[in-house]
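Morning!

This is the sequence you dropped in the shared folder:
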Amino acid sequence: MKLIDRAGLAVLLSALQVRGYETIGPVRRDGAIVYDRIDEVSELPAGWTDHQAPGSYRLERRDDDALFGYAVGPQSWKRYLFTPQQTLFSVARQPDGGLAFTPAALAAPKRAFIGVRACELAAIGIQDRVFRDGEHVDAAYAARRDAVLLVAVNCAVAADTCFCSSMGTGPAVSSGHDLALTELIDAAGHHFAIEAGSAIGTQLLADLPGRAASADDLAAIRAVPQRTAASISRSLDAGGVPALLMRNLEHPRWQEVADRCLSCANCTLACPTCFCSTNEEVTDLAGAAHHQRRWDSCFNVEFSHLGHGSVRGSVKSRYRQWLTHKLATWHDQFGESGCVGCGRCISWCPVGIDITEEVAVIASDDRGATA
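The structure's back. C-alpha cells below.
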C-alpha cells in the first residue's frame, strides 16, 4: 500500500502508456460522465459529482477537486469488451462466381481501464463467465478481456439508485483488479492510496513515487467505503428473490409495471451484465456482405420472434422475462445473480421504474399471502 498524489497518478498513466496500454477512464461529456480515452490526469472529471434518482441523472459541482467523486454514468465497461457491434465474417463473390468467406480479424488492443468500481468489477466477472470461462468461449471477447488491465477505485460516493451492498458487490473493492485506488481528501491534502491485486499491479506499484501508508492512513482508507455503504438507502433481499419471483409469475404487479414501461430497452443497454445480441447481414457497394453481431434486448418484440410470431408479444411478458432472468433464473445458469446493484436501470429508465421497489411490492404481498 502506497500513498501517491496527483503527480504520482500521472506517473501511473505514463507507465501504463509506456507499456503499450491505451488508458481509458472517466471524462465529462454531454452532461454525463462517460468512459473514453484519456492521456493525462487533467482529463478526469475533477470537482464533479452525479445526482441520480429514478428516471433522473444530472451532474453537479462538488466543493473539492475529487477526481472520482461520482457514482456511475450511463456507460459501462461492457462497450469495450462485449462491443455494441462486431463483424464476425465477410463474404465476397470471386471472379469464377464462387464465394470467399473471410473471418474478421480479432482486434484486441491493450487497454487499461481507470476508475473501475467494485460493482463494475463484479459485472465484468459475470460477463467473463458468460463469454470466456465457460464451455463455449467467445474468442473475440476473450482476446479483448485478456488484454485489459484494471485499475479499480473504492467508492467514496453512492448515488440514490445504488444498492451494491445488498448484492455483495461493493462499495469496497475486494478482488478482480490489478490495482485499486482510494481517493483521500483531508487536511493533509489530496492523495490516493494504491494497492496491488496482481503480479503486474505489484510491478507498477513498485515504480510509483510515494510513501508507505501509516496506521492512520489505513484507518482513513477503510473508512471511505464504509461511509459509502452506510449512505446507501436502497436494498434488495438478494437471497430470497429467485424463489419469490418464480412463485409470483402471475402477480398483478407485472401488468401494473407494464402499463408504465415503454419497452425502450434503456435498462438492458445501460446494464453492465446484459448480453443479448442479434445477427444481421450488411452489404457494401463493392458487393461484399458482412455478417455482424450487434447488441439487442429482450424488450424488443422481434427478439423472441419465431415462425409463428413473437413468443413474448406483450410488454408484461417481456418485462417479466427480463426481471426474472436477471434476478432468478440467472442463478440456474451461472450460479449467481445477474444484477450487481449499480442502479443504472433505475436512473436511465425514462419512467423511473425501480426494480428494488417492484421486488419489494411483490414480497409484501407474498408475505401477506403466506402469513
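Headline: The radius of gyration is 22 Å.

More detail when I'm at my desk.
O.
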